[in-house]
TrEMBL record:
One of its GO terms (biological process) is phospholipid biosynthetic process. Residues 567-597 have a biased composition (Basic and acidic residues). CDD domains: LPLAT_AAK14816-like. The chain crosses the membrane at residues 389-417, 445-465, 485-507. Keywords: Acyltransferase, Membrane, Transferase, Transmembrane, Transmembrane helix. Residues 39-247 form the Phospholipid/glycerol acyltransferase domain. Residues 706-720 have a biased composition (Low complexity). This is Putative acyltransferase. The keyword Transferase applies.
Length: 738
């Protein structure tokens, strides 16, 4: 019965998270063991209670999370946490007591382990084994001896620069007493789940945060894995790293990616060391923690700060040697590789020069009020831009009018959710020492507020509808209102409110896409042709420079993959040369009439009928309803595309009817605009169209994307014979270090 309840609640929350996010991509989920005990280690913990929902959505197995006992005491979180069989964890910081007086410390004193208090009561506020938190968590140390009310000894000298600065301030600094807690009950619950061959989920960073890098991992997950293995030698535990990557974590209808690494088995040698206790136990735990940390780094993005993260994303967009858009999952993987390259080569003169150019390029984009992906839309004159602007404004009016009704219905929820989330973020920021802006709690509170107010508001709408609708002659289904029951009218109102909201959500997204696409058109109209041509040329030159730099420096980071791809390319070239030589003497017997021509394509059903009629005699994409790759394939169906697939559509010779409209240039542009920030395609497009440079991907990696052909259990790569057990925890897209 408990599994049935779990599955129902899980299904409910999956629907909630699917509504909140526009798209959630996953990678390497096939590597998750189908049976046996599994510990999911998830990082970074950037979205509080939304993070576990992402894992619930994409894990093929039931996952039971460790959750703070203080969170289980909340009404909504606690209710659903218990139904999802969460394991409560008492956190020492939830029981901390504000210390009386202040403390001082001198690292140059005769005893560097001594902390002195001013007007303090150490004897009554501390016990041996408790921890003292210095200046709101800037450092924590275990209390080894209480000498008096104003003196105690700690386990090791204070080394934190922030903590030393606070301790050296005049009058000392504040402190907290953090009691030692008995966690035996929690560990027993974890061992019981693992012995039952179930899966548990844990966020080893501890609390949630909004930094651009992972926080230091806690040792608890290692104690759980090694402790359970030591207690039951027959237990075969696998640790599966899961990396969460958000494009806009707190934004409604944004996108996210979850990437699973390869399972990490527990080394029997570490288990034996763990059993010995003492220093051997600490050594075994530290070794496993290092393995987990490295595995998580392979499936997460980690940069020193948010500015570096934005820089990496810009460079990743500029690097596009294949001239194809790539899937969301592969964008994250490519960003990870750029981070690694940047951190190792940022002091290189060539790299530094390119970084400066990228920063200047970003400033120019800010001045024009556009984004990088919109630069390609600037390639038109003012008349073209004005005509297209008018056309899109018409579509914006149509789609926006449909979305307006739902927006009005849900406006109270938007206002309340945003207000409550802002208040909770300020509270969380004040209580935390690791949050920057507390953006990690915003999405959670938006969802919780909506969860409470949407049913309440919709029921109110249904009641008002039922009350006033009985005064009208006819309602839906041609049922006379005076003869309809109140319940019947109430249900009609409830269904109507839901349908309007869902329809407005779909049309609202289209309207927002159109609205975002207006910026480059306005930029073309408002700025001179020279300025737009300059930014286009600058982007093209910068893109070529970055691509060439990657091809030159990339082999230093990925030498094994560079050699594989170079060998693969040589084989392809040889094969292609032999094929051309074999056909060298063949005559072309195909007549002009039989030669393939650009095929006509049909516009989707959303396209107006008159545009569909025109499209039957034209090879131009009118509304830009597909990705750039799909639009290109429709234009060149049956014939080979041009060598440069990034070629502007104005250079492609259109059908004869479209030549009549060259004056308006309306057939060579994307009507709705590709306004999505990340310019994404489906993962299936990757295998057909995506080809990075010689450095960043290989044929082996492309094949690794196919979960159907990927072996779940084998530790040997069938194509190369290489032992992949050395790459435990890594994504199949991530090359192993040698």
């Amino acid at each position: 019965m408990e599994y049935l309840v779990y599955d129902i609640i899980r299904f409910f929350w999956i629907q909630i998270v699917s509504i909140f996010f526009r798209e959630i991509a996953q990678g390497n989920a096939h590597s998750i063991p189908k049976e046996g005990p599994v510990i999911f280690v998830v990082a970074p913990h950037n979205n509080q209670f939304i993070d576990p929902l992402i894992l619930l959505k994409h894990s093929p197995r039931r996952v039971y999370f460790l959750i703070a006992a203080s969170s289980l005491k909340r009404s909504i979180i606690g209710f659903y946490g218990r139904l999802l069989r969460g394991i409560p964890v008492e956190r020492a910081m939830d029981h901390k007591i504000k210390g009386l007086g202040t403390i001082t410390y001198s690292p140059n004193s005769e005893n560097p382990l001594q902390i002195l208090g001013l007007n303090s009561k150490f004897s009554s506020q501390f016990n041996v084994g408790d921890r003292i938190s210095i200046s709101n968590g800037k450092a924590q140390h275990k209390v080894t001896k209480i000498v008096s009310d104003t003196e105690l000894l700690i386990d090791f000298p204070v080394t934190s620069t922030d903590a030393l600065t606070a301790l050296a301030s005049e009058g000392g600094c504040p402190y907290d007493s953090v009691p030692a807690l008995d966690q035996n009950k929690m560990y027993k619950a974890v061992y019981d789940r693992l012995n039952a061959n179930e899966c548990i989920g844990i966020f080893p960073e501890g609390g949630s945060h909004d930094q651009s890098k992972m926080l230091p991992l806690k040792i608890g997950v290692c104690l759980m894995a090694l402790g359970a293995s030591a207690a039951n030698p027959n237990l075969k535990i696998n640790i599966v790293p899961a990396g969460l990557n958000y494009f806009h974590p707190s934004k409604f209808r944004s996108r996210a990616v979850i990437e699973f690494g390869n399972p990490i088995p527990i080394d029997p040698e570490l288990v034996e060391k763990f059993k010995q206790g003492g220093a051997q136990k600490r050594e075994a735990s530290s070794a496993l923690l290092d393995t987990i940390s490295e595995a998580l780094k392979q499936v997460t993005l980690n940069t020193p700060d948010s500015d570096t993260m934005q820089l990496i994303h810009t460079c990743r967009r500029l690097y596009n040697p294949s001239r194809h858009s790539i899937s969301m999952r592969d964008q994250v993987e490519l960003s990870r590789r750029f981070v690694r390259g940047y951190m190792k080569l940022k002091d290189d003169p060539e790299v530094s020069q390119v970084i400066e150019r990228v920063m200047d390029y970003k400033k120019e984009l800010e001045y024009l009020g556009i984004r990088d992906h919109q630069v390609s839309k600037l390639h038109m004159n003012r008349f073209d831009a004005l005509a297209l602007l008018v056309w899109r404004l018409i579509w914006l009016l149509l789609t926006g009018s449909v979305a307006l009704s739902g927006a009005i219905l849900n406006l109270p929820i938007f206002i309340i959710a945003k207000t409550v989330a802002s208040i909770k973020a300020k509270q969380a920021l004040a209580a935390s020492t690791v949050k920057l802006k507390a953006n990690d709690v915003v999405a959670t509170w938006k969802v919780l507020v909506a969860l409470v107010f949407i049913p309440t508001l919709y029921n109110l709408y249904a009641l008002l509808y039922a009350f006033y609708a009985r005064d009208f002659v006819f309602l839906f289904f041609l049922v006379p209102s005076p003869n309809s029951s109140f319940i019947f009218c109430y249900m009609q109102g409830l269904i109507l409110a839901t349908v309007i909201s869902m329809a407005s959500l779909s049309f609202g997204e289209r309207a927002m896409d159109i609205l975002k696409s207006l910026k480059p058109l306005i930029a073309v109209i408002a700025n001179s042709d020279d300025s737009t041509k300059k930014i286009i040329a600058e982007r093209e030159d910068l893109s070529n420079t970055i691509t060439q730099l990657v091809n030159e420096l990339g082999p230093q980071l990925y030498p094994e993959y560079f050699n594989k791809v170079r060998k693969s390319e040589d084989q392809k070239n040889d094969s292609s040369l032999r094929k051309r030589n074999s056909n060298k003497g063949d005559k072309d017997t195909t007549s002009d009439d039989e030669k393939p021509t650009a095929s006509r394509f049909s516009i989707p059903s959303i396209t107006p009928k008159f545009l569909s009629s025109i499209s039957s005699v034209s090879s131009i994409d009118f509304l830009g309803t597909g990705t750039s790759k799909r639009r290109l394939s429709r234009k060149y169906k049956g014939i080979a595309p041009p060598a440069d697939s990034n070629q502007d559509s104005s250079e492609i010779k259109p059908g004869y009817l479209s030549r009549l409209f060259n004056i308006s240039n309306m057939f060579q542009v994307d009507w709705f605009g590709n306004s999505q920030d990340s310019n994404m395609t489906e993962l299936a497009d990757y295998k057909e169209s995506l080809k990075y440079s010689n450095v960043f991907t290989s044929t082996d990696e492309e094949n690794a994307l196919s979960s159907a052909s990927h072996s779940r259990n084998s530790s040997v790569d069938s194509s190369s014979g290489a032992d992949i057990s050395k790459t435990l925890g890594m994504s199949p897209l991530t090359p192993a270090d040698k």
